[in-house]
């Protein structure tokens, strides 16, 4: 049996907290050599389409806690915008005179060290994974991915005009995302959900509906 649930309009406070946690997660540990600076999350949009959960097993069901195994799938309209700097010289282009941005005044892919700013837009996420989901009135939400959830993500960057760089960046960023889903996202979801637990009357992460 599968079901969908209402996807709320998340508040500004939720976005601020989520951006801070995602930025910390993306800068945790060793980054790919091509990344020459911190990765900053500058925009987060949760979209309008919720994930879908298919029940595979229910291990516990009480008034205060629920535990089950689900198959989670997502193909929605959420997106993330990142900003960082990249070192272009390790890419070893066969044609060093290719323009990165197109046109005669674009930057060149040089053999010498070259650090340039880069913006990335991550969209069209497709996720599919078995998850263990625990919902507790006292402790919040705990979610653990049993398999690699990332099936697809479209990554558009400043350097899309050069196919070799675009493919390289796609591969490197996908690797960072897979690590984040596996190691960091469960903790982020848990910490954000604890804000809901603290609220007695109104969840602080839901946008307030207008009154009157």
From TrEMBL:
All copies of domain SMP-LTD, residue ranges: 1-194
Transmembrane found in the keyword field: yes
Subcellular localization(s) per the UniProt record: Membrane
Keywords recorded for this protein, A-Z: Lipid transport, Lipid-binding, Membrane, Mitochondrion, Mitochondrion outer membrane, Transmembrane, Transmembrane beta strand, Transport
Predominant localisation class: membrane
Protein name: SMP-LTD domain-containing protein
Species the sequence originates in: Postia placenta MAD-698-R-SB12
GO CC annotations, alphabetized: ERMES complex
Gene Ontology BP annotations: mitochondrion organization; mitochondrion-endoplasmic reticulum membrane tethering; phospholipid transport
Pfam family, one: Mdm34_N
Domain of life assignment: Eukaryota
InterPro entries referenced in this protein's UniProt entry, alphabetically: MDM34 (IPR027536), MDM34_N (IPR058825), SMP_LBD (IPR031468)
Organismal lineage: Eukaryota, Fungi, Dikarya, Basidiomycota, Agaricomycotina
Molecular function per GO: lipid binding
